[in-house]
Amino acid sequence: MTYRLTKTAAIAATAVAAGLGITACGGGTTAGAHSASLATRTSATASATPSSSTTTKTPKATPSKAKTHKAKAHKSKAPETATARATAKKVSRDEVRPTVTTRFVTGTATVAFQTVRKYDSTLAYGTSRVQRAGVAGLETVTYRQQLVGTRVSTSTVVKRVVTRQPVDQILVIGTKKATPTPTPTPTPTPTPTGGGSSSGLDLSRAAMWDRIAQCESGGNWHINTGNGYYGGLQFSYSTWLAYGGGSFASRADLATREQQITIANHVYNASGLSAWGCAGAA
């Protein structure tokens, strides 16, 4: 705007100068007057124009445009900032959220053996014995594991392969009921009937046998110390039976004094007192 006003003023000044020149050369009073009038109007217009341009200066509008441009720029940046924040938030969540992976793991496990029970009628009731010991087997197990980060969250068996079969244990259980042991019947002791040999008893030398018994057993006719000799006269088991003691009792300590004296007389008749260590007591 200022450039146009300046150019107009220059044109007006040139026109005035040209009018003056024409007058000086004698071009006529009317043309000079016309030129002067034109110059005067032009000057007036030129004088009025700067005043109008002063009130409507363009630079005052420039800050308003700048503010509008900044506001638009701010508005255009707002969506970009929200998008950037959302992207950053998504990236942050992805970084915090652990990775879920799947893997397969193979291991070895034992296979338990079973116990087979058998019943035996020859084995006492309430007793048992192991006929064959059990042996555990082996198997290869494959697991599918799900990991959250480095931590195993689930583990599932997907395959089992038995590599060694287990051996069952055999247990024998007795069913035989115990038979009650019969009570042995005691052997009746013969009752002495007299002192003659005809009655089966021989009580001759009774006093001598009493003295020998006192030396051999302290006079206890039913003694059994477990040393292999029995009764008052300390008969061995074999001697007692060899001389007929079995007709009275199975051992000398189970027989009466009279019966032991009778067998002692049988021995005495065969070999004298050589069988007794206390023969001197006779």
Automatic annotation (TrEMBL):
InterPro entries per the UniProt record, alphabetical: G5_dom, Lysozyme-like_dom_sf, RPF
Signal peptide span: 1-17
GO MF assignments: hydrolase activity
Region (Disordered) residue spans: 42-94, 177-200
SMART domains: G5
Keyword Nucleotide-binding: no
CDD domains xrefs: RPF
Domain of life (superkingdom): Bacteria
Positions of the G5 domain: 97-177
SUPFAM superfamilies given in the database record: Lysozyme-like
Keyword Isomerase: no
Composition skew (Low complexity), residue ranges: 42-65
Basic residues bias spans: 66-76
Gene3D superfamilies per UniProt: 1.10.530.10, Resuscitation-promoting factor rpfb
Keywords of this entry: Hydrolase, Signal
Bias (Pro residues) ranges: 181-191
Pfam families: G5, Transglycosylas
Family per similarity comment: Belongs to the transglycosylase family. Rpf subfamily.
Name of the protein in its database record: G5 domain-containing protein
Source taxonomy: Bacteria, Bacillati, Actinomycetota, Actinomycetes, Micrococcales
